[in-house]
């Protein structure tokens, strides 16, 4: 029996591990390191209606146990992604989550309508939480009514399940989650990056050309755990958890918090083999914890049934 | 390209804050193209988190040893400079595309122009070119005498000109001043250094054929994170190249500097 399999709307996964959007390009780079079919799924880089170059460089800055990025949703546009990037995954056995972004409701709907029809796409991830673009992105992700309205429109045109990627840059994330659940979201992914900044003492100016960037990496893990713990108890749709995951132990922690699957982002930049390594370490870790199937862990930090080994 | 814990053979400071690090590992066998780089993880902890891109300065394929030169500047390179003989370093590489060696033929002359920590990859290039019967002339620019390195090593392979900003060694000024002062004939130009130097060079010798190796802050080093992206000359506004995976070496004029 596969102890690691998880099932989410549109995503039948061999294991709960997927690279996070924006940290995996369109897969080709990592295919040079390992067989992508070992992954539970993969979320590809955000698609927008038109090609985007993104922000000027420097686009990344290291921080304590983390990094700031302000890439700015660089991508060749939805048409080219469908034509040139998605067919690559035909040779692999894994569901693909297509991340979609836009500046207007119409943009999102157009991208969603198109890319959800692609045979390689199993689900959409509605990116309403990118902190690095001037228009669109996060403005849809910080107001519950706006997020819900967008979710409803995208759901109406998408032929695949829709996961809404939530921003941690809000005062009440459960309210956001409930609003998009009510609007028809099939699942949530959380958290996107935290808005941050670093200054250069020599120039006395921000290190990033965009001034601000999104903070990711191990530094944000406790924030993600807290938010997933809170949101998973408030909603009944599944959560793809992410935010600083870099080990098998982190994956367990995210699932105990309430995630049904776990995405790995920044850690891929540190070690391109991190996803397959974590996947291979999970069975032994489950055994140590006396867990028969990984799904038993989901919400274990707050569910009364808990995990057998932890019940005293 | 692969990941390996390579063993430190030696480490010494050869100029002000410039360290020469020699490591040994099976992965070195793949480092046959001058101009490629490696990505080092200098700590097991999350501080610093990301790898450090370091150019390949010299390779001994028979002994599987790699020589890297780097400037000790921030937290990462400070930690790297503390690595002692016998310790290991997590190395990913070789990454990127090196300098084309077949763009020039035996008997012709290559001009190698390097600035600061852009000099190291030109040394492996110089060795490979001379091995192929190509003459080399090197113009190396540094801040001052205490920052200069590998002058003698290059001199074993061809003619060398040095420039220093303060004039403490060689020509006072920049590499471009050397090119102004000296009558250097060459067939192909190879250069690596700060973007400002490459820009000045491009303006000075607009008709030169050759290759530039570019520097930019990197995230992943393998083309996935889109941190080190550049515009292309004459392309659409959305056209780009990634320095890590499409470069770091590009034909002169291809990338908008």
UniProtKB/TrEMBL annotation, chain A:
Transmembrane segments: none annotated. Binds 1 FMN per subunit. Pathway: Pyrimidine metabolism; UMP biosynthesis via de novo pathway; orotate from (S)-dihydroorotate (NAD(+) route): step 1/1. It comes from the Bacteria. Its EC number is 1.3.-.-. Signal peptide: none annotated. InterPro entries: Aldolase_TIM, DHO_dehydrogenase, DHOD_1B, Dihydroorotate_DH_1, Dihydroorotate_DH_1_2, Dihydroorotate_DH_cat, Dihydroorotate_DH_CS, Dihydroorotate_DH_I. Substrate binds at residues 45, 69-73, 127, 192-193. The active site is at residue 130. PROSITE patterns: DHODEHASE_1, DHODEHASE_2. GO terms for molecular function: dihydroorotate dehydrogenase (NAD+) activity. It is found in: Cytoplasm. It catalyses: (S)-dihydroorotate + A = orotate + AH2; (S)-dihydroorotate + NAD(+) = orotate + NADH + H(+). Catalyzes the conversion of dihydroorotate to orotate with NAD(+) as electron acceptor. HAMAP family: DHO_dh_type1 (MF_00224). This is Dihydroorotate dehydrogenase.
From TrEMBL, chain B:
Coiled coil: none annotated. The keyword Metal-binding applies. CDD domains: DHOD_e_trans. Its cofactor is [2Fe-2S] cluster; FAD. FAD binds at residues 52-55, 69-71, 76-77. SUPFAM superfamilies: Ferredoxin reductase-like, C-terminal NADP-linked domain, Riboflavin synthase domain-like. InterPro entries: Cyt_c3_hydrogenase_gsu (IPR012165), Dihydroorotate_DH_ele_sf (IPR037117), Dihydroorotate_DH_Fe-S-bd (IPR019480), Dihydroorotate_DHASE_ETsu (IPR023455), FAD-bd_FR_type (IPR017927), FNR_nucleotide-bd (IPR039261), PyrK_electron_transfer (IPR050353), Riboflavin_synthase-like_b-brl (IPR017938). Residues 1-101 form the FAD-binding FR-type domain. Binds 1 [2Fe-2S] cluster per subunit. Pathway: Pyrimidine metabolism; UMP biosynthesis via de novo pathway; orotate from (S)-dihydroorotate (NAD(+) route): step 1/1. The keyword Protease does not apply. [2Fe-2S] cluster binds at residues 220, 225, 228, 244. Keywords: 2Fe-2S, Electron transport, FAD, Flavoprotein, Iron, Iron-sulfur, Metal-binding, Pyrimidine biosynthesis, Transport. Belongs to the PyrK family. Heterotetramer of 2 PyrK and 2 PyrD type B subunits. PANTHER family: DIHYDROOROTATE DEHYDROGENASE B (NAD(+)), ELECTRON TRANSFER SUBUNIT, DIHYDROOROTATE DEHYDROGENASE B (NAD(+)), ELECTRON TRANSFER SUBUNIT-RELATED. Responsible for channeling the electrons from the oxidation of dihydroorotate from the FMN redox center in the PyrD type B subunit to the ultimate electron acceptor NAD(+). This is Dihydroorotate dehydrogenase B (NAD(+)), electron transfer subunit. It comes from Fictibacillus fluitans. The lineage of its organism: Bacteria, Bacillati, Bacillota, Bacilli, Bacillales.
């Amino acid at each position: 029996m596969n102890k690691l399999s998880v099932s989410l709307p549109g995503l039948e996964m061999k294991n709960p591990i997927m690279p996070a959007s924006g940290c995996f390009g369109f897969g080709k780079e990592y295919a040079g390191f390992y067989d992508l079919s070992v992954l539970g799924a993969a979320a590809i880089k955000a698609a927008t209606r038109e090609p985007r170059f993104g922000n000027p460089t420097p686009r990344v800055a290291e921080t304590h146990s983390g990094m700031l990025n302000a890439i700015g949703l660089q991508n060749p546009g939805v048409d080219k992604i469908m034509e040139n990037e998605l067919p690559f995954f035909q040779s692999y056995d894994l569901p693909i989550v297509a991340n979609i972004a836009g500046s207007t409701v119409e943009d999102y709907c157009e991208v969603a309508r198109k890319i959800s029809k692609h045979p390689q796409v199993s689900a959409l991830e509605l990116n309403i939480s990118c902190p690095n673009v001037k228009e669109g992105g996060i403005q849809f992700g910080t107001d519950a009514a706006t997020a819900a309205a967008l979710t409803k429109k995208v759901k109406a045109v998408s032929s695949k399940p829709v996961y809404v990627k939530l921003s941690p840059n809000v005062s009440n994330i459960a309210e956001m989650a409930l609003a998009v659940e009510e609007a028809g979201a099939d699942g949530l992914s959380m958290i996107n990056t935290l808005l941050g900044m670093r200054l250069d003492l020599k120039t006395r100016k921000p290190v990033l050309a965009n001034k601000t960037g999104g903070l990711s990496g191990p530094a944000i893990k406790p924030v993600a755990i807290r938010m997933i713990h809170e949101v998973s108890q408030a909603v009944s749709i599944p959560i793809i958890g992410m935010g600083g995951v870099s080990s098998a132990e982190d994956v367990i922690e995210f699932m105990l918090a309430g995630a049904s699957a776990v995405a790995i982002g920044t850690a891929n930049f540190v070690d391109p083999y991190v996803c397959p390594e974590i996947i291979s370490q999970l069975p032994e870790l489950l055994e140590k914890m006396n867990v028969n199937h990984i799904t038993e862990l989901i919400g274990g930090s707050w569910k009364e049934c808990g995990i057998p080994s932890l019940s005293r | 390209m692969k990941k390996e814990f390579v063993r430190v053979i030696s480490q010494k400071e050869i100029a002000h804050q410039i360290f020469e690090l020699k490591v040994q590992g099976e992965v070195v066998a793949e480092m046959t193209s001058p101009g490629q780089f490696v990505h080092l993880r200098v700590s097991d902890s999350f501080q610093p988190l990301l790898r450090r891109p370091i150019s390949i300065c010299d390779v001994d394929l028979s002994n599987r040893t790699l020589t890297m030169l780097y400037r000790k500047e921030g937290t990462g390179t400070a930690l790297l400079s503390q690595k002692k003989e016998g310790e290991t370093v997590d190395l990913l590489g070789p990454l990127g595309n090196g300098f084309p060696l077949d763009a020039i033929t035996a008997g012709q002359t290559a001009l190698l122009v390097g600035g600061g920590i852009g000099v190291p990859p030109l040394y492996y290039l110089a060795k490979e070119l001379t091995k192929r019967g190509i003459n080399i002339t090197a113009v190396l620019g540094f801040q001052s005498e205490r920052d200069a390195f590998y002058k003698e090593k290059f001199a074993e392979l061809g003619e060398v000109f040095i420039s220093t900003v303060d004039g403490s060694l060689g020509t006072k000024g920049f590499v471009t001043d050397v090119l102004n002062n000296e009558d250097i004939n060459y067939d192909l130009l190879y250069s690596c250094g700060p973007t400002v130097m490459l820009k000045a060079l491009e303006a000075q010798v607009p008709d030169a054929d050759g290759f530039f190796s570019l520097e930019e802050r990197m995230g992943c080093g393998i083309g996935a994170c889109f941190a080190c992206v550049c515009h292309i000359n004459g392309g659409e506004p959305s056209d780009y190249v990634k320095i890590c995976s499409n470069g770091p070496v590009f034909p002169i004029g291809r990338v908008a500097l």
